[in-house]
Amino acid sequence: MQSGSLPSQATSPYFDEARSAEVVNARMSDEADGRLRRVMSVLVKHLHAAIKEIEPTHEEWFSAIRFLTETGQMCTDWRQEYILLSDILGVSMLVDAINHRRPSGATPNTILGPFYVANAPEYANGENICLDGKGEPMVVEGRVTDISGNSIPNAKLEVWQTNDDGFYDVQQKGVQPDSNLRGVFTSDAEGRYWFKSVKPRHYPIPSDGPVGKLLEEMGRHPNRAAHLHFIVSAPGFDPVITHIFTPDCPYLSEDAVFGVKRELIAEFTKIDDLDAAKRVGFSSSYWSVSWDFTLATSGKPILANA
Ligand code: BEZ
Ligand code: FE
After folding, report:
1. Where are the beta strands (DSSP E) in the chain?
2. Distance of CA 116 to CAs 138, 168, 234, 274, Å?
3. Residue 10 pLDDT more than 90?
4. What's the pTM?
5. Which of 85, 111, 220 to mutate to test the pocket of ligand 1 (most atoms within 8 A of CB)?
6. 77-97, pLDDT tens digit by residue?
7. Class for the domain spanning 90-295
8. Among 75, 87, 92, 203, residue to substitute to test ligand 1 (most atoms within 8 Å of Cβ)
């Protein structure tokens, strides 16, 4: 450009509606971190495209700002409303899928959720993690293996679930016994594990904040399909953060956070035989669940479409 002449329309640094994203992205320094440049330029490109498609009024734009402000204000050490927002928009599951592409046959990941607690009580196989005596008794048993079916002894299985009222222990401190329905088990020499608990029920995600209000306004319910959470880990293997779902839950195909995967729906068999119940330490009928975890060796993630 000659000194004194105006920049052409195609390279102008001044804002205009048609080139809005390019104008903003051109302002980024070449010295900015490469990953940050990539992230910000993609975000600006798609954000501007969305705004052009939506054409919000000023009032609509401001109500979006208010929503984001309230979402931040709802966050505490115990409540992460932004993660909840990411969960209900399917973003948490998408980030997880991108980061956990496993070989076929390996147990898939699903959402961690906000109610995991590290260092839960350790139990011997066969013990009962239900401390409040509520709910329908259940026995879960299975094996932890590698992709070829070889046993993985000494695998750590961390399990947690809600009580029969649909709350985690940490949501009801002083109401439920501490560490109710959570515990850590270790697979035996054959990779086997087994424990007692109660059949999980569906429950709502925390919906008393802006995310709950948004769900309601979108005509969506806050319920999660009934599940047990697990983290299964062993040295040399990629730890799996996952669930087991009950097959009879009415919310299976409409889980509020998109956490259900077909491969994670288990069979729950009702055992009505009292002698069998007594043999496992129950005095009434119970649910029996057989579930194996298959771990992939740790290493580089499998590339998409590879
Ligand atoms: C859960 O399964 O515990 C959960 C997951 C996402 C949001 C809220 C709860
Ligand atoms: Fe949960």
Report:
1. 137-146, 156-160, 182-186, 192-198, 203-204, 223-224, 227-233, 240-245, 268-271, 286-290, 293-295
2. 21, 9, 18, 34
3. no
4. 0.92
5. 111
6. 889 999 999 999 999 999 999
7. mainly beta
8. 87
